[in-house]
């Protein structure tokens, strides 16, 4: 089912990246990424503050459209996936600055998008147990206490989390990370109150338009949303070239023609959506 069929796609020609995002200098990206490598996360305020209200409204429209259940865009009652297929605003964002430069700095110039999702959790809903994303990538046996802090834990995938609503306090259900726990080589030692190196979870509090870089191997959760507000979190997951994209139905997935046409004049956007030149293994 195409975006044009669902009447969600806009009609800009040719594909252009919006300039409504705050810019980050290369040196600042490098500094922030150093913090990210060490802690497993880093908060970057004020990247797309003016765009959050319109994005929330579009997301609400998506959740109200029952056709998106049949097209496998809606995973459950709080998660929507492959937003870039549904509206050009989301398509623009996956290759906008500073997102694309951050991804290339961390994963190399042949990285690509592996998922674009949104979590819209109302009061009382959250993914509130501490976990790592997907599976443990660098496990350690019991006799090895942790990865050597002098090394960088290999990074194959990371996520740029984009706050689309204010999260001013813990009651609003912030993402919580246990700093440095991606060095543990283990799953969380407690699903509700884990600690690593004597440190417990830290909350990411911020405003709509802030972003934070997220290593899915760092123990994390969404704290319970005890407020009276719905929390909106847009997620851009990027991977190295060899990491398969997570677009359902996976090996049977084809980039929709309306998306392919929209990015036909933008080689960088084409590559970020998986149109790579020939390379290793084929």
Fill in the keyword field for this structure.
282 residues, alpha+beta, Jelly Rolls, six-stranded antiparallel β-sheet, 8 helices, 16% strand
Topology record:
Blueprint: H1 3-6, H2 26-39, E1 41-44, H3 52-64, H4 67-70, E2 79-81, H5 88-94, H6 99-107, E3 112-121, E4 157-163, E5 175-177, E6 202-203, E7 211-214, E8 220-222, E9 231-239, H7 257-262, H8 267-272
Helix pairs in contact: 2-6
Report on this model:
22% of the residues lie in helices and 16% in strands. The protein is an alpha+beta fold. It has one domain: q2cbj1_9rhob like domain (Jelly Rolls), CATH 2.60.120. The strands form two sheets. A six-stranded antiparallel β-sheet has the order 1-7-4-9-3-2. Strands 6-5-8 form a three-stranded antiparallel β-sheet, with no helix packed on it. The longest helix is centred in the first third of the chain and has 14 residues, at 26-39.
Q: How many separate domains? A: 1
Taken as a percent bin, the fraction of beta residues is 15-25%
Q: Give me the secondary-structure category.
A: alpha+beta
Radius of gyration: 19 Å
Helix content: 10-25%
| Highest CATH level, the class | Mainly Beta
Q: Give the strand order, joined by hyphens, for the main sheet.
A: 1-7-4-9-3-2
Mean pLDDT: 92
Shape: globular
Number of helices: 8
How many strand units?
A: 9
The major sheet is characterized as: 6 strands, antiparallel
CATH superfamily: q2cbj1_9rhob like domain
